[in-house]
Amino acid sequence: MAGSVRVLVSTAWLARQLVAKNSTVKVIDASFNMPAWNRDALQEYEASHIPTATFFDVDKIKDETSDLPHMLPPANVFQEAMRDRGIYNNDHVVIYDCSDFGIFSAPRLWWMFRMFGHDRVSVLNGGFTAWTKEERPVESAPLKLPVEPRSDYVVQDEKTELVRTRQDVLDNLAHKKEHVLDARSRERFNGTAPEPRPGLSSGHVPGSTCLPFTDFLADKRMKERGELETIFKVADTDLQSRRCIASCGSGVSACVIAMAAHIVTAPLDPEGGALNHDQVMPIYDGAWTEWASSGCPIEKHQDAQ
């Protein structure tokens, strides 16, 4: 069983770890903001963050050879980013973001760690919003990279099977072996609302199902396991019998679906916490931005749920 750490950790648990002796917990702020939000994630990190946290920008640590937004970086780029941030292979990494949703971009980095074989990784349930609401300690400091000393982090197991390409999704239109789950809003999925990226058509991949990532959240936290299971069942999505792919606008909120599915199918620890395991949902990394800009088939006005 991968990792044997919880998929989600609470603010209270993290607060205890930050003052515990010999703790291997490392904290990362993985905030990412959509262009329309008019926010600067790095500036916000430097103004206020969880003590000891470093910052990881999914919009900059990416595949520089691609014109698509924040595509998965090559293994060597991810490895160097971890070394610069003092992350070691045996660390338990806890990720959060500062979004108004409570959970938005943190699951993207969780999925990236799993993709690169690092299983001791969790997401802070409720994110920075919950942390500050509970008046827990914060600090302000400029981001200084690389840290001293740099770590000797090594990507040990690149799991390329967790990534789907445009061609994979095109091929799936014929063989239908995998079920595409779309994390965008129902309006964008149906083609009745514009995409946030100018000039990009809305709509959806034929045969896909709309599961807005916000459906998995309540009070800015991930819903309970039973509620998550119900969401998939209502959407006629059997996580056990058919392989699923998560997609969205650009590969970020899709990872909320992947993490929710991971919780539903996870073994539980003695206290009922969902543990990381080996079955991680693949992500269509190019997502709708690639699909809609490449002349691929588009359906509209079919609200699946």
TrEMBL record:
PROSITE patterns per the UniProt record, alphabetical: RHODANESE_3 (PS50206)
Gene Ontology MF annotations: thiosulfate-cyanide sulfurtransferase activity
The keyword Repeat appears for this protein: yes
Listed Pfam families: Rhodanese
Keyword vocabulary terms for this entry: Repeat, Transferase
Region ranges (Disordered): 186-206
Domain Rhodanese positions: 21-140, 174-300
CDD domains, A to Z: TST_Repeat_1 (cd01448), TST_Repeat_2 (cd01449)
A GO term from the CC aspect: mitochondrion
The protein, known as: Rhodanese domain-containing protein
Lineage: Eukaryota, Choanoflagellata, Craspedida, Salpingoecidae, Salpingoeca
